[in-house]
Amino acid sequence: MRAPPPSLLPLLLATAFLSPSPSIATDKLDQTASIAGNQTLESAGGVFRLGFFVPPGSSDGRAYLGIWYASIPEKTVVWVANRRNPVVRPPGVLTLSSDGRLVILDGRNATVWSSDNAAGSGGVATRATAQLLDNGDLVVSHGGESQSGSTTGRTSVAWESFDYPTDTLLPGMKLGVDGRSGISRNITSWRSAADPSPGAYTFKLVSGGLPEFFLFRGLSKTYASGPWNGAELTGVPNLKSRDFIFTVLSNPDETYYTYYVSDPSVLSRFVLNGTTGQVQRFSWHRGGGGGGGWSGFWHFPLDPCDSYARCGAFGYCDVGQSPLCSCLPGFRPRSPQRWSLGDGSGGCVRTTNLSCGAGDGFWTVSRMKLPEATSATVHAGVTMDQCRKMCLGNCSCRAYAAADVSGGINRGCVIWAVDLIDMRQYPEVVQDVYIRLAQSEVDALTAAGRRRPAVGTTSFH
Predict the structure, then answer these.
(1) Which part of the chain is the EGF-like domain (predicted)?
(2) How far apart are the first and last CA of the chain?
(3) Which DSSP letter does residue 283 get?
(4) How far apart are CA 157 and CA 384, in angstroms?
(5) Judgement on whether residues 137 and 220 belong to the same structural domain of the protein
(6) What whole-number distance in Å separates Cα of residue 80 and Cα of residue 101?
(7) Range of the domain at 64
(8) What percent of the chain has pLDDT over 70?
(9) Is the whole-model pTM more than 0.90?
């Protein structure tokens, strides 16, 4: 439908909001059209729907532009455009401006929210369209733009909702940082079930060293995925399954996590729960008579050992033992009194100081979540023998490991010149980490026949 004259806009919007209105039978919006009230766009395959909604349980009637599943009876919102700026003076209307921006107007024709201006200040975007895809992405494309208004004849993606997640990651979305565009793709929980404004929890990539994803409550870290070692996130070694495929890509241009499901007909979502503070994965289970429900597959944090840095520096956590915290071989509790009370947050200190030279050696642990590596240093193209020598040549080096173990081959090297924190032990092998100790400690451990830190380590008593 063509955009109405400005003088008639408030009246028509009010009519659209108050009266039943059929969905627009298209997945696209162009610069001559708008949607308002209960009008929606629907993706070509009928998977997703875009429109205005009022959260269930909301008492103030504030409206938001969102995307939800169209093919299931339960209205599950996966993206919200104006989560910080609701429409408080209904009705809301969505249009495409002359410079190709998505714009939400309220009942007084005031701008509530707009997408980035990809055409530049004062630019004109010709043949701009917004299309809702079957993967849940809302994509704004320009048929060509210029400052003068002339067309270029090329179609380009100017903006997409996948670059601005809210609390949900859908298959194919990225969680991470794009260095070229400067975009950081994070997910942040809703404030409550009735309020989609940003809540207390954020899950995001923290750049530096090896890629690693952290859950924050405000400014405090509460959980970490463990560093990516080219094969897995070492804090979630059991994440992979036959139907769930994920990877972490890291190069000079961008670093991100993404996932797919092997059966594209399965509805799957990865959501940050603002009540529990957990990252959860759900899939839709179809029931008889068109019903069904969301089934949870996994969630993190999973257990007490998933609490960030629970056992402090040079300590590690193991849910298979009681108490939970132990010191790495060659270390003892920093505060024996607190340690005896079950508080391992103070961590551990060396039993024997390093000599910073030939008098030092290494002890291998292999069933550990790698220590937090955001402040570690990665050296590409370095062999493990070269890495060992580099560590011994740096008095601050505490440990080293292969940076990439994909395919069972060690590639590159990561060196920790900081305290080792946020480690936990698993029943299965993750990868070798070489802990620097005084050679006398290595000799004593070898003589005692200790091959695993789980055997005879210092623990709560």
Answers:
(1) 301-337
(2) 74
(3) E
(4) 44
(5) no
(6) 16
(7) 22-117+125-144+156-164
(8) 87
(9) no
